Every structure is written in C-alpha cells, then in structure tokens.
TrEMBL record:
Protein name: Lactose-binding lectin l-2-like
One family name in Pfam for this protein: Lectin_C
Keyword annotations: Disulfide bond, Signal
Keyword set includes Membrane: no
Highest rank taxon of the organism: Eukaryota
Taxonomic lineage of the native organism: Eukaryota, Metazoa, Hemichordata, Enteropneusta, Harrimaniidae
Organism: Saccoglossus kowalevskii (Acorn worm)
Record gene name: LOC102804138
C-alpha cells in the first residue's frame, strides 16, 4: 500500500505551529516557500569557517544553497548591509565543476557577467557582487558575511526516523 504522507506532514506542521513550538533552529527564520530555515551571519569568516559555523548553529546547517530567483531574492533580503556574502557554491574539488556544500543539485546559477573567471584560482562563490548583485567566484580565504540554510525541525525528525528505519531494515537482512 502506498500512502501519501504529504497531508500527514502538513497536519503535523500545523499542530507544531499551534503548539507554538519552534519550527526552526534558534535564530533562524522559516520560509514556507521552500520549507527551509535561514540565518544571516554578520560576522566575517573565510568560506570554510563560514560553512562550519552554519553546521555548528543548526543540525544539517550549511552555507545557503539557492534553487530559484525567488529563493535568491529572499536570501538577499536577509543581508542587512547589502554587501557581498558567501553562499555554499564552490569548485574547490574540481575546477569549473561547481557544487553546493549541502549537496543539493546545482539546478540554476546567477553569475554576474564574465563570471566565474577563476581569476588567480577563485573557488568559492559570493552573491551580491557588482551592480547587478549576482554571483562571483572569489578567493576562499577572504572573510565575508554569510547566510546559513538548515532543514526545519520536522524535516530533521523525519530524516532521523527514515535513517533509523533504514538501519533496522539492514539489520533484518
Ligand atoms: Ca581551483
Ligand atoms: Ca575555480
Ligand atoms: Ca571571479
């Protein structure tokens, strides 16, 4: 029997909200359009430390990945200074092969014109670059503000349950 779990998730979500429980890790802001939680980090970090910081602040937290112009716009709106900030895209492992630190698909890009240019081996991506406020590959050691993205608490619970079920299944075999 195949069950549609979406109504159940939606119901659980509403119960959670009714009970006033936090849907997001502390300080993160929920966005219903994606169901994810976001946090603007004003402190300046290099790329690697910025990504580690996101993981320290939330279970499953990484530098933000975006998957549409709408999501990019939402994230830009969180960045109070309007300055450039780290996002999770990088080509550290393989030049010109950009990936997200959260391993989600690279299903759209928002490069500024003539970027990415890998000038002097740039491997980490910032947004809010240039007049058009788009993406640029930059030097990973630069210290910038950043935005973190994390699954909402319900997603984390669901993921843990799925993993436990998977482990049990493997034990039975
Ligand atoms: Ca490189
Ligand atoms: Ca590069
Ligand atoms: Ca560049």
């Amino acid at each position: 029997m195949k069950m549609n779990v979406l109504p159940i998730i939606a119901f659980a979500l509403s119960i959670n909200l009714v009970l006033g429980q936090e849907l997001c890790p502390s300080g993160f802001r929920y966005w219903s359009y994606t169901g994810y939680c976001y946090l603007y980090v004003r402190d300046l970090y290099n790329f690697r430390d910025a990504d580690t910081n996101c993981g320290n602040l939330a279970a499953g937290g990484y530098l933000v990945s975006t998957h549409s112009l709408a999501e990019e716009g939402f994230v830009q709106g969180l960045v109070e200074t309007g300055d450039d900030y780290w996002i999770g895209a990088n080509d550290v492992n393989s030049n010109s092969d950009f990936v997200w630190t959260d391993r989600s698909p690279m299903d759209w890009t928002n490069w500024d014109c003539d970027e990415p240019n890998n000038s002097g081996d740039e491997d980490c991506v910032e947004s809010n670059f240039g007049l058009d406020k788009r993406w640029n590959d930059a030097h990973c050691d630069n210290r910038k503000q950043s935005v973190c993205k994390a699954p909402n608490n319900l997603m984390v619970t669901h993921k843990v349950k799925t993993e436990i079920a998977e482990i049990k299944k493997n034990d039975d075999n």
